[in-house]
Specification:
Strand content: 5-15%
Number of helices: 23
Strand order of the largest sheet: 6-7-8-3-9-10
Helix content: 55-70%
Structural class: alpha/beta
Largest sheet: 6 strands, mixed
Number of strands: 10
Low-confidence stretches: 1-23, 615-619
Shape: elongated
């Protein structure tokens, strides 16, 4: 039972297929592009790394000189110089390291900020269709878990690669110059380890992908069940234990994946570490034999070489481990780039012009509009999506009220969402003052249209901020005037903090009517030329409905209004009533004319007449 319930809230199986793998070189190139704006700082950081790497090989050479020259020659002057350099150089290297760390932190954090900004900006441009087809928790997981997962790679790993490479290369050169035979012995197994590390990294990448998907599932469960609406539903149906068990199952799966992710390659790296620990003994054996047999090696050579060797093994081990980490990070980059690569299917045309609010009259025209939900085939052929709307045509002039009525699922709300271009029509055109809305900018279209829906959304902020969202530059006087016009001013003044009262998550500190009137004040402040009312009062009590209807009458004056209502008593005075059935207009006219037809409208009205004692006209 749990399995079936869980599946119903997840995306289709196609969503969970592995993301399309791009070449690793392409991913690296794309990630490097985020560092391009900071190339001067990156160059400075690389320069500092090279300086510290160069300083690092000096001390072993100084140690050789002390053992082979200064002490055998009993030369205190040389000894003081060499020891002084051995003390001074680490201090200089440490100071440079602090500066380098500061630069790395600035570069890394700004790159992360740019990545988050770009991802959020891209998501804001995505059409409504994307959000209706994707879980909110999945989107949040990409922004938080996935982006957070690559932070260490961006802020530390890139620098670590350069630093460890510089140290390794400079050390290998110094070791080769001291004794090329010992250098070969020390590095003999490194190529084999590198090849095996790549395989370990690929396994880490697969586990990381599965882990991030499970984290997305877990985030979705949290977002759904710990929201106010989710908690209300859970408690109302007594499903607390059910949701807890489901969360525990996903949580246990995440723990298992994360343990596997941490343990991948641990045995392998234990072997590498053991090899690196044993290798100095081999060097002592080979070099010791040379000294005993009177060959070229000196004690200073052995000490300097083993010191360099110890200095080499740490960056080599880190480079091998970084290879595994990078493969895991590629899985996260793939998921982030998958979102960034999603096409923005609804955007401004190249020649789009803005609508000037004060010049818009508000004449709204639907010209043979047809629409269907879902994503069309890429090649445009073989489209089997069912039509939601078909051949919708009507015209609404400024000051007129157009009412859309019909059974649930007929397509009324879809019509309302096409007006502000939340979706694009598939056929036909929608025009404002004769201009196709696809030829105007989305921002200006949003400024001349306003929508009040049955489901009111308020931000977890103050009453003032929620109303001012309709026009961000509004003065306090204008906000208060909008509140008065929406018949909510007196109620706001009765709140503990008045306009500074925080309304809570989704406005749950307020009643349904209060939330609706605040939303109405927001639209009044916006002053749209075209007003869309999508069942704005159907869920309210009679008193709240009368208050809002009165405010709507004032708001609708001089504007083009499109109202959707299941309660036909609210649209009796409409200039034109459009009866929608199965995505088509089957009847149109005024209330009395439609009753005389004795068709679908008359049937709906007669059914509702028994449910409501007195009509509440819009105007």
């Amino acid at each position: 039972m749990m399995r079936g319930a869980r599946a119903s809230r997840l995306l289709p199986p196609a969503y969970y297929r592995s993301t399309l793998k791009r070449p690793d070189s392409a991913t690296v190139k794309r990630v490097a592009g985020f560092f391009r704006p900071y190339k001067a700082r990156v160059a400075l950081s690389v320069g500092l790394i090279l300086i510290t790497a160069g300083i690092g090989i000096v001390n072993p050479i100084l140690l050789k000189l002390i053992i082979d020259d200064a002490i055998p020659q009993r030369n205190l002057h040389l000894l003081y110089i060499y020891v002084g350099l051995m003390v001074t150089l680490p201090i200089v290297s440490g100071l440079i390291g602090v500066l380098q760390s500061w630069l790395n932190a600035i570069i890394g954090q700004r790159v992360m900020s740019d990545l988050r900004d770009q991802l959020y900006r891209h998501l804001q441009r995505m059409p409504l269709r994307f959000f209706t087809e994707t879980r909110t928790g999945e989107i949040q997981s990409r922004l938080s878990n996935d982006v957070g997962g690559i932070q260490r790679v961006v802020t530390e790993t890139a620098t670590s690669i350069v630093s460890n490479l510089a140290v390794a290369i400079s050390t290998i050169i110094a070791m080769w110059l001291l004794d090329w035979r010992l250098a070969i012995i020390s590095l003999a197994m490194v190529p084999i380890f590198g090849a095996l590390t790549y395989k370990v990294g690929k396994a880490r990448r697969e586990i990381t992908t599965a882990t991030q998907r499970t984290m997305a599932d877990l985030t979705s469960i949290l977002e759904e069940t710990l929201s106010v609406s989710g908690v209300l539903l859970t408690k109302a149906f007594g499903r607390q234990q059910y949701e807890t068990d489901k969360f525990r199952g996903e949580n246990a799966r995440l723990v298992d994946l994360q343990v596997r992710q941490q343990m991948i390659g641990r045995w392998f790296f234990m072997i590498i570490s053991t090899f690196f620990t044993i290798t100095p003994a081999v060097v002592y054996l080979v070099a010791g034999r040379e000294i005993i047999h009177g060959e070229a090696a000196t004690i200073g050579d052995i000490v300097a070489f083993t010191t360099l060797q110890s200095r080499l093994f740490m960056p080599l081990g880190q480079l091998l481990n970084i290879q595994v980490e990078i493969q895991g990070a590629f899985a996260l980059f793939d998921r982030i780039f998958e979102y960034l690569d999603m096409p923005v299917t609804l955007s401004d045309r190249p020649n789009a012009k803005p609508l000037v609010h004060d010049e818009v009259q508000g004449r709204l025209t639907f010209d043979d509009v047809s629409f269907r939900y879902g994503t069309p085939p890429p090649d445009g052929t073989g489209d089997i999506r069912p039509w939601t709307l078909r051949d919708i045509s009507f015209e609404a002039n400024p000051g007129e009220l157009i009412a859309l009525v019909g059974p649930s699922g007929a397509g009324k709300s879809t019509i309302s969402m096409l007006i502000p271009r939340l979706y694009d029509v598939d056929e036909g055109a929608i025009r404002i003052d004769g201009t196709d809305i696809r030829d105007v900018t989305l921002e200006s279209l949003g400024q001349v249209t306003g929508m009040v829906t049955q489901e009111t959304y308020l931000f977890h902020s103050t009453v003032r901020a929620n109303i001012a969202y309709g026009r961000l530059d509004a003065t306090d006087a204008e906000i208060e005037q909008a509140a008065r016009a929406a018949a909510i001013y007196d109620r706001i003044m009765a709140l503990p903090e008045k306009f500074e009262t925080v309304v809570g998550e989704r406005g749950y500190k307020l009643s349904g009517g209060e939330k609706q009137r605040i939303a109405l004040a927001r639209v009044i402040l916006k002053d749209p030329r075209i007003l869309i009312l999508d069942e704005a009062t159907s869920a309210l009590d009679t008193h709240s409905e009368r208050l809002i209807q009165s405010a709507l009458e004032d708001l609708a004056a001089g504007r083009t209004t499109v109202a959707i209502a299941h309660r036909l008593s609210t649209v009796l005075a409409a200039d034109q009533i459009l009866v929608i059935e199965q995505g088509r207009i089957v009847e149109r006219g005024r209330h009395a004319d439609l009753l005389a037809l004795e068709g679908l409208y008359a049937q709906l009205y007669n059914e509702q007449f028994l449910m409501f004692e007195e009509p509440v006209p819009l105007s």
